[in-house]
Design brief:
Layout (H helix, E strand, L loop, with lengths): L2 E3 L2 E5 L6 H15 L3 E6 L5 H14 L3 E7 L2 H10 L4 E5 L8 E7 L8 H10 L13 E3 L3 H11 L2 H7 L2 E5 L9 H7 L3 E4 L19 H7 L5 E4 L8 E3 L9 H15 L4 E5 L4 H10 L2 E5 L3 H11 L3 E4 L4 E4 L3 E4 L1 H15 L3 H7 L4 E8 L6 H15 L3 E3 L4 E6 L2 E7 L5 E8 L2 H19 L5
Parallel strand pairs: 3-4, 3-5, 4-7, 8-9, 8-10, 12-13, 12-14
Antiparallel strand pairs: 1-2, 2-6, 5-6, 10-11, 14-15, 15-16, 17-21, 18-19, 19-20, 20-21
């Protein structure tokens, strides 16, 4: 089964996400956006070259001039769209999903995901669209990494980083950032070692989690100042401390915000998604930001940022940071650079920062669902149980968020990228956190088994 949303088309490839579908998606994208010059790039998955060729074929059949960037991270591709004044981009990447999955992401000429109405038009026209071959476009190979690295180096004060000369272990998950993040950090003065950096070999699960980063954390322990881990397309960044502790993804957004504030001395609006930790909220308020919430998903965060005039925002729950005026998309590479500059300027270590940060204990579980599950009914059942048996408040911006108290909560939300229910929560009390987690998982299991009407 194919998952189609504002973040693209996603499924097991080539079983569900087929080359034929990729061709039709490229044609639909061209017709909906009236594009004549489109960038195409891909990640390192085994199915990505096939799907990229299919996308290029679809674009060429519409007379489009294709800029083939080969392997490149999503944030680099989205940046290049604006820098080269293109009409858009199509990126073949499964991002954080397991290796058998893949996806087709589509960017507008602004270097952001297509707005919801345009993506809806692309999706609605997929079934009936067919090639006309009235014209035939051209393909031009182009390396977009150089222009991105030049841009990124101009943002930071390299003197701070060169003076600190941090020892950094980079784990790009054998993905598209293999030849970007390590190179950039070396050029600004870091001492860089890489692991899982061969694009041809699948070393670990693409999603950077405590489980998938166990080996990386062991190698890093007591030998490096910081560890940086990406997913397959480089839009996520998870940090590892010198003690070998894989940090909660919310620390990425918190540290990026600190770095942004110190660098630009900017206060204003700050947008986070509905699943972001109160850790980030507390730090933002300490710095003087007004905090606003959005639905989960890059498209929704960016729309709320534009509405509020926010220059920085993101998704702490998935280690995503958006610097709207620098590169208006989740950019794990730029986030790494901003964090390293901040730590170097302030002469503090990750461990020191953690000791001083607000203490929250969180969990992030997922319960598998059948592809035919009606998630709206499941959410309704969760809401009914909470309203009937408990006295907690409920927020429904995105999924069902049960507010235990001012600092403790649990969110039930169906994934838009996998067939599962994500259950995310936290509390400043570790024992309460575990009780909330057990209750939430038990409730979800009971509903799936039909114990509740």
């Amino acid at each position: 089964m194919l998952i189609m949303s504002h973040s693209g088309l996603r499924g097991i490839a080539p079983k569900w996400l087929t080359p034929e579908l990729a061709i039709r998606a490229a044609i639909a994208f061209t017709r909906v956006t009236n594009s004549t010059r489109v960038l195409v790039c891909r990640d390192t998955r085994t199915t990505s070259p096939l799907l990229a060729k299919a996308v290029i074929a679809g674009l060429l059949s519409e007379g489009v001039r294709v800029i083939d960037a080969g392997i490149a991270p999503t944030p680099v591709a989205f940046f290049a769209v604006r820098k080269l004044n293109l009409d858009g981009a199509i990126v073949i990447t499964g991002s954080h999903n397991p290796g058998m999955w893949n996806a087709i992401k589509m960017a507008s000429r602004e270097g952001t995901f297509l707005k919801g109405d345009l993506m809806d038009k692309v999706i609605s026209s997929l079934r009936d669209v067919r090639p006309t071959c009235k014209d035939y476009g051209k393909v031009m190979k182009f390396d977009i990494v150089d222009i991105y690295i030049k841009f990124a180096k101009e943002i930071v004060d390299q003197d701070y980083i060169k003076k600190a000369s941090p020892k950094v272990l980079v784990d790009p998950a054998s993905g598209a950032a293999c030849h970007v993040t390590p190179r950039l950090l070396k050029e600004v003065g870091c001492k860089v070692t890489t692991i899982n950096s061969s694009p041809e070999v699948y070393f670990r699960e693409y999603e950077p989690t405590k489980s998938s980063l166990k080996t990386t954390a062991l190698i890093l322990k007591s030998k490096y100042d910081i560890g940086l881990a990406h997913d397959c397309d480089g839009d996520r960044l998870v940090l590892i401390s010198p003690k070998g502790e894989v940090l909660d993804p919310n620390f990425t957004l918190a540290l990026a915000l600190e770095g942004f504030y110190e660098k630009f001395n900017h206060r204003g609006s700050f947008v986070i998604n509905f699943a972001t930790s109160n850790l980030v909220r507390d730090i933002a308020k300490k710095l003087g930001f007004n905090v606003y919430y959005s639905k989960i998903g890059e498209v929704h965060v960016l729309e709320e940022m534009e509405r509020r005039g926010a220059l920085i925002g993101g998704e702490g729950s998935s280690a995503g940071v958006i610097f709207r005026e620098l590169n208006p998309t989740r950019d794990g590479i730029l986030a790494a650079l901003m964090i390293l500059e901040y730590l170097s300027r302030e002469h503090i270590s990750i461990d020191e920062y953690i000791r001083e940060a607000p203490k929250y204990y969180g969990f992030h579980d997922k319960v598998s669902l059948d592809s035919s599950s009606n998630v709206e009914i499941l959410l309704s059942q969760i809401e009914n149980v909470v309203k009937k048996d408990l006295e907690y408040d409920i927020e429904v911006l995105d999924g069902i968020k049960v507010i235990i108290d001012d600092n403790s909560w649990v969110l039930f939300r169906p994934s838009r990228t996998e067939f599962c229910m994500r259950i995310i929560g936290e509390s400043p009390n570790i024992k309460l956190t575990e009780r909330i987690r057990k209750w939430a998982l038990s409730l979800m299991e009971g509903i799936i088994k039909g114990k509740y009407p």
